[in-house]
Amino acid sequence: MLLTRRLMLAAPLVPAVQAAAQSPPAEPRVVPPRPLPAPDTISPQLRAYVAPPPAPGWNFVPQTAEAWRGFVAATAQAVMPDVSALRDGFRLTVDSTRIGGVNVFVITPPDIPPENRDRVLMHLHGGGYVLFPGEAGAGEGMLMAGHGRFRVVSVDYRMPPDHPFPAALDDAVAVWRALLAEHGPARMGIFGSSAGGGLVLALLLRARELGLPFPAAIAPGTPWADLAGNGDSRNANAFVDNVLVTDTGWIRAAAALYAGGRDLNDALLSPVNGDFTGFPPALITSGTRDLLLSDAVRTHRKLRQAKVEAQLQMFEAQSHAQFLLRAAPETAEAFAEIAAFFDRHLAR
After folding, report:
1. Which residues, listed in sequence order, are joined to residue 283 by a DSSP beta bridge?
2. Bridge partners of residue 121, in order along the sequence
3. How far apart are CA 223 and CA 167, in angstroms?
4. Rounded to an integer, what distance in angstroms lies between the CA atom of residue 131 and that of residue 153?
5. What is the pLDDT along the chain (348 residues), one digit of tens a residue?
6. What is the arrangement of strands in the sheet containing 188-193, beginning at the earlier edge strand?
């Protein structure tokens, strides 16, 4: 009786399904304008960031190399108060030095637990491969050191307009090679978000080409894994994400600037096109409003298809990389998950 009722309910849908299967691809669906409230299913601290519209100038695209340099400098200056607050709030020691000939920041928490004393995490910062040079890029590394109580090496890799691809990847490889000379790979992990997440994946692809060992685990947050702009969320979350906003904003220009004329589908630029066979366990983080949500989902599926242990943690209502917000409790939750993931997979 129940089966008969279900068939009766489904019967009106059958002609529509058959027609859809036989017809040419449909025209894009038009979504009507609608209000987009900040939900009450997130913390009040996060709601304060979710509710506002995109910041003025979200679609500003510098037109010259000099304009890019000015944009980078202004953006770095804007984030430094938060970076300083992280350093001071967690009582971190941040040492500027060079490893493998590359500028890095070695971030050390005041009390490293015994199980983490021989472990090292390498951090690759975000910013579209263009933004956040110097200590401005080390904020995520400070969050990891503060919440997870790991020693973190944050890589201040070279960036365009002066140093397009493959400068950032070469610097990441150089630091990884130098760290391998001092630490066993079983005691190391690599993490980073946005462009940093994409660079984590590209680094592993390049390490395999060079015969370098992989780390014990990786944590690419909302990885910019497809610079060519493919994926459903690039349209579905356009103007829903109040950080990146749309794929036609400045990130399209940043992708072209970083690639320096190279095909954006190249796996070392868009690692979702690469071979993930043999990759170490991975934890990927994103949010439901993230413009790059599809990059995270596709990366996760690609890892699982390659038989890699991979987890995807999602946060309610968050736009791109908003799990890095200093004052939101969701940030502590995200980094507790990432720290526990590394703890499970790194040797002691």
Report:
1. 311
2. 152, 189
3. 19
4. 18
5. 444 444 344 444 444 445 555 666 778 889 899 999 999 999 999 999 999 999 988 999 999 999 999 999 999 999 999 999 999 999 999 999 999 999 999 999 999 999 999 999 999 999 999 999 999 999 999 999 999 999 999 999 999 999 999 999 999 999 999 999 999 999 999 999 999 999 999 999 999 999 999 999 999 999 999 999 999 999 999 999 999 999 988 999 999 999 999 999 999 999 999 999 999 999 999 999 999 999 999 999 999 999 999 999 999 999 999 999 998 999 999 999 999 999 999 999
6. 93-99, 102-108, 151-155, 120-124, 188-193, 217-221, 282-287, 310-315
**The two structure tokens encoding residue 130:** 């263009």
- Residue 204's nearest CA partner among 348, 302, 347 is 302
- The DSSP string of 196-241 is HHHHHHHHHHHHHHHTPPPPSEEEEES----TT--STHHHHTTTT-
> Helices 329-345 and 139-148 meet at what angle, rounded to 10?
70
SS3 category, 153: strand
- Tokens 């340099």 found at: 69
Angle at the Cα of 165 from the Cα atoms of 202 and 80, rounded to 5 degrees:
85
**DSSP state, residue 23:** S
User: Cβ of 37: how many Cβ atoms within 10 Å?
Assistant: 10
pTM over 0.85: yes
Token digits for 323? Answer: 């799990």
